[in-house]
Each structure stands twice: as C-alpha cells, then as structure tokens.
Amino acid sequence: MVVVVVMGVSGCGKTTVAAHLAQELGCEWVDGDGFHPQSNIAKMRSGTPLTDADRIPWLLNINKYMKRWVAAGKPGVVACSALKKVYRDVLAADIRGQVLFVHLQGPFNLILRRMKQRQGHFMPAALLQSQFDALEPPDPDVEACINLDIVRPSGAIVQQAMQHPRLQALAKGSSSNNDGGERSTVEAKHIIVGVDHGGDGNGDSDDDGDVDGDGLGMRLVSNTANAGQQKQVGGNDSGEEEEEEDDEAEVSMELLCSECLESSHVRRSLREHRRSLSQHNLATTWKCEACTLKHEQQRQHGDVTPRVVCSMCKNAWNWFPTTADGHRVPLPVGPWICPSCEGPARRRHGSSSGDGDGGDSAGDSAGDGVSAAALVCHTSSQHQQGNNPNV
Ligand SMILES: Nc1ncnc2c1ncn2[C@@H]1O[C@H](COP(=O)(O)OP(=O)(O)OP(=O)(O)O)[C@@H](O)[C@H]1O
Ligand SMILES: O=C(O)[C@H](O)[C@@H](O)[C@H](O)[C@H](O)CO
C-alpha cells in the first residue's frame, strides 16, 4: 500500500501526471491545490509567493487526508508541490513508510513555456522563479522518492514511474484481485476541492464562481481521471458505464469539507459536474454546513481568526493571539503542537495566566509568546479555550 505524492514546482505537470498515474493504479487522486485556503489562492494569484506559514496548515490538511487513505488500506495519489524537505516531512507525518514522492523535474524555460500556454489557472508564470528558489529536490538516499524528467510526454513519465517496485507491486496487487487476473478496470477517482461560498471574511470568493449556484461549493469525488474522459460517475445502482455523455445525466458527488474533512453526498447534472472540473483551478475551499455555521457564528462575533492544526491530535485551533502592541502573532512556522498535546511540557515555560493578549510571558504554551488561552480548539464541538477535550 502506498500513497504517491507527485511533487515539483508549479507547472511541472503534477496534475497531469497524477491523473494518469491514478488511472494506471486504479486508485483515487487528489489535487493538493484544492486544499489551499482562499487566502493562499488569492495570494498566489496576486503574484506573491506563499510562505512556510501559509503552507504548513495546508500541508497538514493534505497529510490528514492521506492518512485516511492509509487507515482505509487504500492507495492514492496526491499532486502537491511539496517543495521543501520539511514540507514533505509534514506530508508524510505518521505514514512515512507508506509515502512515495515522485518528483517531476525539468528546465526552467520548458516549465515557463508550459505555464504561459496553460489557460485559466490562478498561478502566474511570474511566480515560477520563487518556486525554483524554494525547491529542495528530494534525495533518494534520504527520502522514498523518484526523480523523473518531464521533457517527455506524460504517458511516458507515468510508465517510468510505474517501474518503481512499490508501484509495480501495487499494480500487480490490483490486477490479481481481479477475476481472471486481468488488469483492474477500476477507474481513478478524482477528488476536487472546490469553491467557498460560506465566506471567511476575505471577500474574494465571489468572482471565482458559485459553480452551481446552490451555495454549496464542491469538493467532489467522481470516477474520472480527467475531465476529457468523462464516464459514468458513481451513484448509479446499475454500475454501468455511460458511452455517451448526457449533460442532464445525474452524477453522484461526495463533497468533502475542508475543515472537518467529513463528506456528504449530493447528486447533480453532468453539466454542473463538468463545469466544476473546468473551474477547479480557481478553487478555494468548501465547508460543510456544520463548519459553515460555526464559521458564520464566529464571523458574527467578529472573529475571522486563522486556524492552525496540531500536528499531533490534528485538531484545528483558532489562532488569535496578538502582540503587546496589538499586532496579530503570525501563524507558527513548521509543525505545531497544541496545548492539550504538549501542555505539561510547554507550560513549564510560563505561567498559565495568559489572557490572550500574546504577551511575552503569560501562559506561553506555544513557546513563542502565545498564551494557551489565546487559542481555541476549533475542531472540538465544545470550543473549549486552551484545552482540547477531544484528546
Ligand atoms: N509531459 C508533458 N508534456 C507536455 N505538456 C505537459 C506535460 N505535463 C504537463 N503538461 C502541460 O503543462 C501544463 C502544466 O501542467 P500541470 O497543470 O499538470 O502542472 P502542475 O504541476 O499541476 O501545475 P500547478 O502546480 O501550477 O497546478 C499544462 O498545460 C499541461 O497540459
Ligand atoms: O507550494 C506552493 O507554492 C503552492 O503549492 C504552489 O506550488 C501552487 O499550489 C501550485 O503550484 C499552483 O498551482
């Protein structure tokens, strides 16, 4: 069992190769871009590179998602830049032995040209240099990885990736599970992370389109590896494949909440489905009803606090500490441990009398001037301050 992370700088072909590879392996795949919060997408679109603080919570969510595959004993493919070693460590946290990085590498000018030719993507080609600057190519002596040259067509790249013993074993496994020992006919499932209509106070989601106008947004699972090869998509009791595309045909989708990662099933027309596929590069995140409600309540209280996910318990914590002069303390860089998980050890560094103003000494649970009381566990339904009852 393996989770493959197809990685590399923007425009190197991660999405293209991930879709083909998942098809080859007959497994689910997801585009890590869909896990970006709206603020990250807006930042990249405006031509500003992401920082570690922008990326870590995003990577933790992808890691959480990958762990669900591992827990379910399912292989999967993720397209995710994973530029630095520390990012890959976050992605592989707790599942290190199960993760294989497939690094797509190629010359700057080739990738630049492909990015310029690509239509409708939020990532400006002008950010490519910053991607190369951040890149720490994986070292096969240190990490489970393959480095592949992207000069060739994506099919050839996938075939080369499939030479890796772990992928061969996976492909063999899936075909030997099949009656008659033939290659699995299971199609790749593509999970798309979609549009946020709940609003998180950034105010920049509307132009990205309410793809279906029902305010749901979407993060969907379908039995298709790419939009151009649309097939019958789940939810049909007969399980038969459709030969002809029928715009009005219904497809079943699994919407995944970007916060709690719980899924809901909806049905909608193939037209809407295709529309969402074509727009997913404009995507931000979707929240389920419960999370949207929580968020809305927080908004009404004027709280549009960023969140940070504990790398141990994976609960999301609202992050609202401020410095003594009233500035917000930046999100922690790198893996972060919440007060509940690391309370006793961290509290040794300060008293527990923090009042949330981020003063240097009071209750410095995060070791960086942040009081435990300045954090609220978001994932917990009880929203208990400075204490996470889920742990
Ligand atoms: N091997 C290839 N040969 C030719 N063109 C390719 C190849 N792989 C990808 N492309 C094209 O290059 C462009 C970038 O590919 P793709 O969107 O898959 O990259 P990406 O790494 O997922 O980008 P990003 O990280 O910005 O989302 C696309 O237009 C795609 O069709
Ligand atoms: O780490 C990053 O800077 C981001 O993941 C970018 O790589 C973008 O998500 C992607 O490349 C744009 O499509």
UniProtKB/TrEMBL annotation:
Which parts of this chain are annotated as the region Disordered? 194-250, 344-391
Task: Write out the catalysed reaction.
Answer: D-gluconate + ATP = 6-phospho-D-gluconate + ADP + H(+)
> Might you give the EC number(s) for this enzyme?
2.7.1.12
What protein family is recorded?
Belongs to the gluconokinase GntK/GntV family.
Comp. bias regions, Low complexity: 362-374
Q: What Pfam families does this protein's entry cite?
A: AAA_33
The record's GO CC annotations read: cytoplasm
Keyword terms: ATP-binding, Kinase, Nucleotide-binding, Transferase
Q: In which pathway does it act?
A: Carbohydrate acid metabolism; D-gluconate degradation
Q: Which InterPro entries match?
A: P-loop_NTPase, Therm_gnt_kin
The answer, when asked if Nucleotide-binding is one of the entry's keywords, is yes
User: Could you tell me one molecular function GO term of this UniProt entry?
Assistant: gluconokinase activity
Sorted alphabetically, the Gene Ontology BP terms of this entry are: carbohydrate metabolic process
Specify residue ranges for compositional bias: Polar residues.
221-235, 378-391
**Acidic residues composition-biased segments:** 203-213, 238-250
Record-linked CDD domains: GntK
Under NCBIfam families, the record lists:
therm_gnt_kin (TIGR01313)
What is the name attached to this protein's record?
Gluconokinase
Superkingdom is: Eukaryota
Matching SUPFAM superfamilies, A to Z? P-loop containing nucleoside triphosphate hydrolases
